[in-house]
Design a protein that fits this description.
The chain has 368 residues and is an alpha+beta fold. The chain is globular, with a radius of gyration of 23 Å. The chain is built from 7 helices and 19 strands.
Length: 368
């Protein structure tokens, strides 16, 4: 199902939700904002091949809705065939999560509802998730880095939105630097649950340092004059992120010694990756590698080479142990083929370790 079809489904689904609410004898207030309106921003965010990510929303796909409010978005995703886990925190939810629980019963839904403190004891059911939605939540967290970093280990793609600002209350410009403004308890609508408002550069750096690769980024709202604490000059950033945990922004093929406990991998002497379809417009690939002392001590200088189709990437020589970045341009039009790497020397299997060992790769990033 493409994004246009999901938008059409959302329009009809809104009426279904309103009918379900009318059947609930509610002694609480419903969440006052239209959660389903986010589909309009996602439609504008995703362009070209990135729109294919939405095709992951379908039968049997595991999806997270974090900060689910009354669950309208969760129930829409379920109607598309997804296995949905809706996450919120009763102490900060608008109606202590009674709304989402009541709607689950009224809609005869099977979504799983998790009540967890996203800022502290953040719990997710075990397993991997294809997509997570984290919309309008980040600036309500005391510890945004913690939440973002935790999700990288279980979530492949993350749709994130949060408020950003270009000017501080004092008039100091924010948009050129990686700065964040900490709100006072009575700023921004008098809501004590609001904490960090980031500049756009700061948000980009935050998600990257927390282990995400930015695939798409766009802001909506007041633009040039946006500030940190007024309702009139509100600007929101929407972005599509892909986890870089254990190189999950590419598909690891042969030649890797994987261990889910660690965000890095030993390689063999030859190892390969495939670039996913939505990232095949990438212009460069960057490997962060570590050359262990034992490799240099036993084998001397080691050379890493890459090959994509008939094109050879410029080799890199490692003469001493340490961390390196192997950054190379990708030939246009060839990214649909596997990318093969090879070392001219590697450690042979031994009694101490039966594996063939090459280098350690801690991340693989694609640059557009």
């Amino acid at each position: 199902m493409d994004l246009g079809q999901i938008r059409a489904r959302a329009v009809g689904f809104q009426s279904q939700v309103e009918n379900a609410k009318a059947r609930v004898d509610a002694d609480f207030s419903w969440y006052p904002y239209d959660s389903l309106s986010n589909i309009e921003h996602l439609d504008k965010l995703l362009e070209g091949e990135l729109r294919d990510v939405i095709e992951l929303l379908g039968d049997g796909r595991r999806v997270l809705d974090i900060g689910a409010a009354d669950g309208e978005w969760s129930f829409l995703l379920e109607s598309l065939g997804c296995e949905v886990v809706a996450v919120d925190y009763a102490l900060t939810n608008a109606n202590e999560m009674r709304g989402i629980t009541a709607l689950k019963n009224a809609l005869r839904s099977k979504i799983e509802i998790i009540d967890t403190d996203i800022d502290n004891r953040f719990y997710l059911p075990e397993g991997k998730y294809d997509i997570a939605f984290f919309l309008g939540i980040l600036y309500h967290l005391k510890n945004p880095f913690f939440a973002l970093e935790k999700m990288t280990k279980q979530v492949k793609y993350l749709f994130l939105s949060t408020r950003v600002a270009r000017v501080a209350p004092s008039g100091v410009p924010l948009e050129r630097d990686c700065l964040a403004y900490l709100l006072g308890p009575h700023e921004l609508n008098g809501d004590r649950s609001n904490y960090w408002i980031f500049s756009e550069p700061a948000l980009r750096r935050l998600v990257e340092r927390a282990g995400w690769q930015v695939l798409a980024f766009r802001t909506f709202g007041s633009g040039k004059g946006s500030d940190t604490n007024s309702l009139e000059r509100d600007e929101r950033a929407f972005c599509l992120l892909r986890s870089a945990y254990q190189m999950s922004n590419v598909e690891l093929l042969e030649g890797w010694h994987r261990d889910d406990q660690y965000p890095w991998c030993w390689t063999e002497g030859r190892f390969s990756v495939a670039i996913p379809a939505e990232a095949r417009r990438a212009a460069k690939i960057a490997l962060e590698v570590y050359v262990p002392p034992l490799l240099i001590e036993r084998l001397g200088t080691v050379t890493l080479e890459g090959q994509l189709g008939a094109s050879h990437l410029e080799p890199m020589r490692f003469e001493r142990e340490g961390e390196y970045q192997f950054v190379r341009a990708l030939p246009p039009g060839l990214a649909s083929q596997p990318l093969h790497f090879s070392l001219n020397k590697c450690l042979a299997p031994s009694d101490d370790d039966p594996r063939e060992l090459g280098i350690i790769v801690s991340s693989i990033r694609l640059h557009f």
